[in-house]
Amino acid sequence: MNNERIPPAEFRRIQRAREALRNRLPGGLNYVLAVSGGADSLALAAVCGQMRRDGDLTGQVTAAIVDHQLQSGSTEAAEGAARACRELGVDRVVIRRIVVPGKGTENDAREARYRELELVRQEVGAEFVLTAHTANDQAEQVLLALARGSGTRAIAGIPDKRGRVLRPFLDVWREDTEAVCEAYGVEPWEDPTNADPEFALRNKVRLELLPEITRILGDGALANLVRTAAQARHDAEHLDNEAQAALQACALTETPEVLEGPRASGRAPMQWDLDRYLLKNAPQAIRTRVLRIAAQTVGGRAPTAERTAALERLTAGEGSAGPIQLDGYVTAHRIKTTPDHSVIRFIGRPPAAASDASAASDA
């Protein structure tokens, strides 16, 4: 890349992408790059390749390309992304072709992709997986969370780190990644579904709503959405810490009790009792978090807003004593243990056999 031929405005965009990685990635670690072939992920590969040549990254960099095989031409797109990564100086390139379970929805594909990326990370001995989510993705996420009436944690948007996944481009805009691709002479692959507003709600937000917001409110509107995410994240982190402390105060045992009973997929039934009086008198922002954490700890999924409201009524002593059915084969009950004391009991159980499951759903 010849820096002298790049216009100053474009050069500043490229530098922003470079600085984002230099500031966020420890140089001596091994990384797996999640590469789709789009501008964002190829820009990530380009900057990582440059950092390898400059000596800023001394660990190994592996590009992992997951072909979901959900669209015609996906094989060719994966091969093209692999060639681009090799030309950009990535140490190693792997292509994984997977079968997406379920109905092949966007969520099914995402979960399958992250599982495969984690397998690649373990196989190559990398410390982290890097994804190329940008500030544009963050703005979209915040707007969707606001439209859905979500809480602080959802409005906090995409985290820059979760487990073994790092997202170093969250301060980088899509225009920056496109400038990087042009400077390095790589042509991104455009997923045809990304240009189809009918394919997914996120596409409608990206292609229709965000441009209209920018037109009406000005160029700073998207940056303000990203700033909202950062502010909400700080609040959410504090509340999450307070909720963990409150959970330990309310829980009658330090961890869920493993119950005797049948196991499925290596999972034993679990039970966890929380002091209802202490929980009832906690601030609502803490109480709802404690209830959600408890449900997830015994093996369930994060309860929806509707299910969380039902848990709130259970805790307040209103209506039925349960059970409340939660996603992930978890139930919650209000149990009176003495005349003056009651608990909220979460029970996580293994998935039922198919015949039992259908009977339960009919009930």
Automatic annotation (TrEMBL):
Lineage, top-rank taxon, reads: Bacteria
Residues in tRNA(Ile)-lysidine/2-thiocytidine synthase N-terminal domain copies: 31-207
Record-listed ATP binding positions: 36-41
Location in the cell reads: Cytoplasm
Where is coiled-coil annotated?
A: 222-249
Keywords tagged on the record: ATP-binding, Coiled coil, Cytoplasm, Ligase, Nucleotide-binding, tRNA processing
Read off the CDD domains from this record.
TilS_N
A Pfam match is TilS
Q: Which residues does the UniProt record annotate as the domain tRNA(Ile)-lysidine synthase substrate-binding? A: 278-334
User: Per the record's keyword annotation, is Cytoplasm included, yes or no?
Assistant: yes
Name the enzyme's class.
ligase
Q: What EC number(s) is this enzyme filed under? A: 6.3.4.19
What family does the Swiss-Prot or TrEMBL record give for this protein? Belongs to the tRNA(Ile)-lysidine synthase family.
Q: State what this protein does.
A: Ligates lysine onto the cytidine present at position 34 of the AUA codon-specific tRNA(Ile) that contains the anticodon CAU, in an ATP-dependent manner. Cytidine is converted to lysidine, thus changing the amino acid specificity of the tRNA from methionine to isoleucine.
Q: What is this protein called?
A: tRNA(Ile)-lysidine synthase
This chain's source organism reads Pseudoglutamicibacter cumminsii
